[in-house]
């Protein structure tokens, strides 16, 4: 496995673990990164209380523009439409953590999708995903969950 692919795999696994700790039923798509042509698989699918989020995961060594190919973007959006979910580009940055860029399922994809570094910098963390899905926790529940992970 190349270093680049290994880094992407580690980021996907980290996101799966984060979402699992938050109570989601979550899986990393086994075809993630494979050259499957007939199916539209995102990197990660997460479900909580009937709400679905689908993720294309990117890991970067520093804050920089991200380019996602037309086909990859279309597959993410197609899966989100079929699942009735919300599509995200999940970006893992060292010393910053996770940033989530929400996409509109009705987006027309004509070219490579460019996400500029300013958009990434301003993007919400995991709390933004929970808010999009209308999933809230009481402070008491959150603290208990956090204390159990250490």
From TrEMBL:
It catalyses: Endonucleolytic cleavage at a junction such as a reciprocal single-stranded crossover between two homologous DNA duplexes (Holliday junction). One of its GO terms (biological process) is DNA recombination. The active site is at 32. Binds 1 Mg(2+) ion per subunit. It is an enzyme of class 3 (hydrolase). Mg(2+) binds at residues 12, 43, 56. GO terms for molecular function: crossover junction DNA endonuclease activity; DNA binding; magnesium ion binding. Its EC number is 3.1.21.10. It comes from the Archaea. Keywords: DNA damage, DNA recombination, DNA repair, DNA-binding, Endonuclease, Hydrolase, Magnesium, Metal-binding, Nuclease. InterPro entries: Hjc (IPR002732), Hjc_arc (IPR014428), Restrct_endonuc-II-like (IPR011335), tRNA_endonuc-like_dom_sf (IPR011856). The record marks 58 as: Transition state stabilizer. Its cofactor is Mg(2+). A structure-specific endonuclease that resolves Holliday junction (HJ) intermediates during genetic recombination. Cleaves 4-way DNA junctions introducing paired nicks in opposing strands, leaving a 5'-terminal phosphate and a 3'-terminal hydroxyl group that are subsequently ligated to produce recombinant products. Belongs to the Holliday junction resolvase Hjc family. Homodimer. This is Crossover junction endodeoxyribonuclease Hjc.
